[in-house]
Amino acid sequence: MTRTSPRRTPYTCSPLTSSTVLQQPAAGVLQEELETNISTGNVIEILKAADQVNSQDMKRRALKKIAENFTIVQPLPAFRCLKHSLLLEVTDYVADYMRLRE
Question: Taking the CB of residue 81, how many other CB atoms lie within 10 A of it?
Answer without folding.
Answer: 16
